[in-house]
Amino acid sequence: MRVLIVEDDALHRSYLNEAVRSALPECDDVMESEDGRLGEIEARKSRAEFVVMDLQMRERNGIEAARTIWRERPDTKILFWSNYSDEAYVRGVSRIVPEGATYGYVLKSTSEERLKLALRSVFLESQCVIDREVRGIQQKGMGSAHGLTDGEYEILVDVALGLTDKTIANRKKLSLRTVQNRLQQLYEKLDIYKETGDDESRYNLRTRAVAVALMRRLLNASAVERAERELQNDWTSQEFQGP
Amino acid sequence: MRVLIVEDDALHRSYLNEAVRSALPECDDVMESEDGRLGEIEARKSRAEFVVMDLQMRERNGIEAARTIWRERPDTKILFWSNYSDEAYVRGVSRIVPEGATYGYVLKSTSEERLKLALRSVFLESQCVIDREVRGIQQKGMGSAHGLTDGEYEILVDVALGLTDKTIANRKKLSLRTVQNRLQQLYEKLDIYKETGDDESRYNLRTRAVAVALMRRLLNASAVERAERELQNDWTSQEFQGP
DNA sequence: GCTTGTCTTGCGGGAACCCGCAGATCTTAG
DNA sequence: CTAAGATCTGCGGGTTCCCGCAAGACAAGC
């Protein structure tokens, strides 16, 4: 049994190493990689079945790395280990997990006990373990507080990328007016209107929406970069023109 | 001699504690705070002259905390200790440092030797120490690659907040056309035009500018939040109504 | 069937945005 | 003082955005 740790902070890396050795005495070998890119290579070379993965790394973030690892070996068990419970990350993870794969999601602020428990549960018993703080975000469809539909979230990302309404309509195969409608209902969910109501001063609604999405941690730079890469793919592989 | 450590990650906190005790044997007491808010209180209560401050914390980020600490005791020596060399953070720090104050800025990835050296240099010899990677950003005015004027950066922040051109004009006491001019030169610096040139597909320029600023780490959520708070101050203290 | 509700699409217009052009102001160098 | 250069400002227009209104599509329920 061999475990691969992918984490770019040296302290956290050694902490994880120690925790893994302590929680899993049956573990023969613990490998380490310093960023997502190297993690992919190491996982491919060593054929590790168990991975502890940091999100938010320099060279290549944990979501990208996990996706390629799962693409090559879908039975790999991955425990995600993240700083915050940003909605963008949680969504990103749940978007790439393949059918039936086992994974976990724990915050760096959890106690060592919980971490070790999660290691044993995910790696040995193939249970999915998700921290309570994260769980709150994962179940979508709550009381409009910060529960965006998948469709609305998609629109939000496209807007945050700086796309035009018309461009979004082409990409999503929708009418122009429909895109604008979804934007409006996005504005309502984000309380954009309430703010402009206070003063006569007006916001530019679409950029304001991006701003509050940032502040509410619905978006972050990594999510935008991911979407940007997907966009460039669509952009070059197929030309978008006409009805 | 007493040192206050403000850092919300437990591992980094203990690492810093050890480093401080090792680098500064003449240090009597090492205090710790878990976020910016508590750090302010502890600094006020203990009258610590030396602070090691993390940026990017939950409750109140390091820049805010440092500002209030410096406002109460401008002779406090602060060593900033950050994950990345994000332009937004560097700008934020250099914006709040008072006249003649001594401070340092080192990355978490630097070696323990460099960290200890920085601790001694800043705290004992009152030297300003700034990591090489950070230095690159600090000197502004380079070959248009990512060198934004202060004025351009201000505009960028206001746009990222979601403000209207007219609103920005009022806030900055400028003409509407001037704001739009600055926006145009911002677009050029960010290469917004080059991108739209590839395809007929159009971007919404202002949100696109925010997107690339995010991806180039010129902006981040903390910077937006900071600006938002300033905005709300102006908003309520004085009413903005054009002639 | 009829109604109710949600989602999509079109039309139209007022407002905001993007920008070329040209005159006015201010700085800097010779 | 003058000339050159950068910045600010107003005007006019083409485009996009924001949104109220209304008609069609589809599903669920009495």
Automatic annotation (TrEMBL), chains A, B:
Cross-referenced CDD domains: REC_NarL-like (cd17535)
Keyword terms of this UniProt record: DNA-binding, Phosphoprotein
Gene Ontology biological process terms, A to Z: phosphorelay signal transduction system; regulation of DNA-templated transcription
The keyword Lipid biosynthesis is annotated on this UniProt entry: no
Modified-residue entries (4-aspartylphosphate), positions: 54
Gene3D superfamilies the record matches: 3.40.50.2300, Winged helix-like DNA-binding domain superfamily/Winged helix DNA-binding domain (1.10.10.10)
One annotated GO molecular function: DNA binding
Record's keyword annotation contains DNA-binding: yes
Name of the molecule in the record: LuxR family two component transcriptional regulator
Originating organism: Neorhizobium alkalisoli
